Amino acid sequence: MAVKPILLAAGVGERLRPFTNVLPKCLMPINGVPLLEYWLASMRQLNIDDVLVNVHYRSTDVIDFLSRPRFLNWITYTEESHLLGTAGTIRANKDFIGDSSCFLVHSDNWCCCDFQSFLDYHRFNRPINTSITMMTFTSENPQSSGIIESDERGVVIRFHEKVKKPPGNKANAAVYLVEPEVIEWINENKNVTDFSTEVIPAFIGKIATWHNYSIHRDIGTIDSLLKAQLDNKPSLPWPDKDEWQISFDAHNIHRMIGDAKIAKQIS
């Protein structure tokens, strides 16, 4: 099964201001390394050599990051003049996906797990008649998450997007493996722009789940970003620092995060 990843990295990150005034959400550092770099490292460790990243907010920063020698010839970016929405980005890049499975990732999430097991489950073990595999995790704040209910096979039977009284804490991690029939459906339904609120409801009963028992955080708030700094740092396939990383080490964002840590400890 060929896999074509699309890493969604275009978001603004309003809840992360003032941090996102100086750096896009996808480049927020986790233990000194940009969040997006961990995702690209995971793709490399899976021997995936053709990855697409969409950019919009502070796109120059992201493009500069993606222009490093370690990403040449296997990372492509597409710049959106206005946000297309998750499904809109898929539709705009259907030729990149072709007849492959799409590895769709909200790359502003901090996620550590066995991605090979995730791929293998989708390839070999997902229930029959399912065309999406959704990664799930146990949410600390289910009211702010998309909570799923599943049957005995792990197939999604109900989905609750950020409701006040969710029926559990098993949440959508916004990491998916998506089959061509779903891509075709998105392409045919031109008015559909959002994967979570429009595509998922349309495919209830056809969505398998794979649970991440390791680390998964939505880096959408300052508190969540600070918690991520305490997590174990996974190894990278390129241990040496390049010129971009040396420059990034001196970025003001590190001081801002340090000050926020101190303020949180005082309060």
Automatic annotation (TrEMBL):
Residue ranges of domain Nucleotidyl transferase in the record: 4-231
**Per its UniProt record, what Gene3D superfamilies does this chain match?**
Spore Coat Polysaccharide Biosynthesis Protein SpsA, Chain A
Pfam families assigned: NTP_transferase
What SUPFAM superfamilies does this protein's entry cite?
Answer: Nucleotide-diphospho-sugar transferases
InterPro entries under this entry?
A: Mannose-1P_guanyltransferase, NTP_transferase_dom, Nucleotide-diphossugar_trans
Q: What is this protein called?
A: Nucleotidyl transferase domain-containing protein
Species for this entry: marine metagenome
